Amino acid sequence: MAATYLPTLKQLQYLVALNDAGHFGRAAEACYVTQSTLSAGIRELETLIGVTIVERTRRVVRFTPLGEKIADKARVVLREAEELGDIARAAGRPLTGEMRMSVIPTIAPFMLPRMLPRLRADFPDLKLFLREEPSAAACESLHHGRTDCVLLALPYACGDVETVPLFDDRLYVAFPRGELDVTHGPVLAEEIDETRLLLLEDGHCLKDHALAACNHPELRGRAAMLGTSLHTIVQMVDNGLGVTMLPEMAVESGILDGTGIEARPIEAERASRRIALVWRKASPREADFRLLASMLAGGDTPA
Is the pTM of this model over 0.90? Predict the structure, then answer.
């Protein structure tokens, strides 16, 4: 019987890195190898399977249609190979070894400083690698195996995942002091001037949560979407350019310190977002994720 030669995991890693980066140099950096090593590995893979995966020009790396299918399958193979190690870790002590977590930008700077010290103290053998990226990119990273779990805000369609809600994060209206005629208590949705509403750019789910809280989801295309981050939005409001919506965790973390901005909770049917931890279904590390979720929710035992 003739020998069967199979692609190596290293070759598949090079392929996926190149597909993600679209550039040989950046892909090589991501794999911690030289560009010539990565290029040679891709050529060996093409020779092995007998098809052209990548069309090479001086400036552009373009995957063939078949190359795209092979790269997608390579991601699945690599993810399942990683899960072999996950199975072994899951049989040992909880929350040990490497874990990659994506966190959306409207959570990361406000929740991580509170979360990480306790996690390091309780689980010193856990090596947690963090990625800050918007919800769509985070869910894509999860399904492509670049990350193991995602800390995000619901409602958001993240695909076929396991979800553990952690807590509700109320939404606040932030406005220049004296702009709204309120002295205490919540602000009604109809009291917000939609023409002065400053929101985050597309890609941030907080924008959709804010518009839903204002009972104006149809304003997606018309509201002033100027800010790249909540800190940028706060500076705009402090300069009198409009009003915005902030999550309670940002307000409590002191994002308004040193500004002339007031913040009041909004009184509306959908006036909060739900913070949740999600991961791929059937992951062998489910027990780890549930323990992690319990800690993030403020408990001490798995959910």
Answer: no
Q: Flag whether 120 is in a domain.
A: yes
Distance CA 153, CA 138 (A): 11
Q: What is the pLDDT of residue 8?
A: 87
In contact, 173 and 127? CB cutoff 8 Å: no
Residue 102 sits in a domain of what CATH number?
Answer: 3.40.190.290
Residue 45 tokens read as: 């893979």
Domain that holds residue 101: 95-303
**Cα 86–92–95 angle (5° rounding)?**
70
Mean pLDDT by 10 residues, the chain (303 residues): 69 90 87 90 89 81 89 84 67 79 94 92 90 92 89 91 94 85 73 82 75 62 65 92 91 93 86 93 87 81 37
Q: Are 265 and 218 in contact (CB under 8 A)?
A: no
To which residue do tokens 């911690």 refer?
32
Quick one: 161 and 264 in the same domain?
yes
Q: What is the pLDDT of residues 131-148, one digit of tens each?
A: 999 999 999 899 888 899
Q: Rounded distance, CA 93 to CA 42, Å?
A: 38
The DSSP string of 285-299 is: THHHHHHHHHHHTT-
At 13-68, the pLDDT tens digits run 899 889 888 888 888 888 888 989 999 999 999 888 888 888 887 677 889 889 89
Confidence (pLDDT) at 51: 87
Same domain, 183 and 249: yes
CA distance linking residue 64 with residue 79, whole number of Å: 23
Indicate whether 236 belongs to any domain: yes
- Shared domain for 106 and 174, answered yes or no, is yes
